[in-house]
Structure formats: C-alpha cells, structure tokens
Specification:
Distance between the termini: 40 Å
Helix content: 40-55%
Oligomer: single chain
Length: about 220
C-alpha cells in the first residue's frame, strides 16, 4: 500500500517502509516470489518476451522461423496461381457468395489434388526437407515427403504483422481427396515454430487499423 511502499519511477527502484527493503525490479521479484536472481531473471524475461537461451541455439531457431515464413509465402502464391486456373473452383466460391475482390484480398487459393506438387515446387526453391516438415505443409511418410493439403480451397492464416503462418483447407467437392473415406471437410495446419493456435486470431492483421481508430470490436 502507499503508506508502506514507494517507488522511484525515474530510477526504476522501490522501497518498502515496512520491512526497510529496497532495490530494483529483480530484487523486488526475488522478495515477492521467493526466487533467486537467476529464477527472477527467467520469470521477467518470459513476461517481457525476451529469449535467454544460448545465442547459437537462438540463431538456429531464428533461421528456421525465417525459412518457414518464406515457405508459407511461396505456398500462398502457388495456391493463388493454381486457383486462377481452376474456373470450376472459382465458380464454387462464387456460388458460396465470395466475390473476386474478397478472394484476392484474403489470398484464397487452391491446393492441387496430388501428393507432391507443392513439395516439388518448394524443393526447387531450395528449401530443405527438414524445413518443409517443420512448416507443417509437408508430411514425412514411408515413401518420402508428401503435401498435407490436397484438393482443397486454401485460406491463409496470418500473424499480427500479416505474415502467413498457417493455412486451413476446405475440401472441394468432386476431387479425389473428397472421395477418400474419413476425410474431414476442413483440415488445419498443425502447430509449428511460427504457428500457435492459442495466439493466432484469424483476420486480426486486416482489422487492427480499424480497431485502433474505432476503439471497439465485435468478436464472433
């Protein structure tokens, strides 16, 4: 309370008039949470979003994150290009009420009804099989890598900055994928190094400017 504890905001220090203890944020957390300095540092770093791991380990993770984001961007372009050559799929989308502007703005695409089309394209771009599997867009099977999404309308999922981090795919009626037994109408990317379902909100990168201006939102 104010009568027993004060703080110097300029110096980022605190002092308790009750127990006569003072210090910085690290000593404060050590006292309140009963932690040693190393534990307090780890707790504060987690809250601030700072990674304390070894720089070599961190650099390897950052390299893979960059590669996985690039993979998703190339995949989105590939899916968009294929959709432009699928008039039957475009017609299906239009029947469902989507106009061309919506399809273009939200970068909706089409995953071909085959097993290695995307894998082959991304390999030619120089991406490793390890990174393709890490992206969640490829699955490693007994016969090698194959595409996770096949014969599906593809909806990109972005992070807050607009980077594509995942996809959800809606099966297209009449494709070989749709005829396979037990196939779900929708499938989603698995959790990856860049995609965490609990942290991603579909469409937020498109809406955040309006949210900041209007100071309100209806979340459905």
């Amino acid at each position: 309370s104010s009568d027993v504890c004060s703080s110097d905001l300029d110096k980022q220090m605190f002092y308790c008039f009750g127990c006569k203890k003072g210090g910085d944020i690290f000593s404060f957390v050590q006292e309140i949470e009963h932690l040693d300095f190393k534990e307090a540092l780890a707790l504060l770093a987690e809250k601030a979003g700072v990674d304390l791991r070894h720089s070599k380990e961190l650099s390897l993770e950052m390299r893979q994150k960059k590669s996985v984001l690039q993979i998703h961007e190339y995949a989105a372009r590939f899916y968009q290009l294929l959709l432009s050559n699928q008039p039957n799929v475009i017609q299906y989308l239009e029947k469902r009420g989507l106009i061309s502007t919506t399809i273009k703005t939200w970068r909706i695409g089409y995953a071909p009804d085959g097993f290695q089309q995307l894998v082959n394209v991304l390999r030619k771009k120089g991406f490793s099989d390890e990174d393709l599997v890490a992206s969640g867009l490829a699955i490693r099977g007994e016969r090698g890598l194959y595409d996770r999404f096949r014969g599906r309308i593809m909806f990109p999922i972005t992070d807050n900055q607009g980077n594509i981090i995942a996809f959800t795919g809606r099966v297209v009626p009449g494709t070989a994928e749709a005829s396979r037994e037990g196939v779900g109408k929708y499938i989603n990317s698995p959790e990856t190094i860049v995609y965490h379902k609990s942290s991603a909100l579909f469409g937020f990168s498109y809406a955040k400017k309006q949210l900041a201006e209007k100071k309100s939102v209806i979340l459905v």
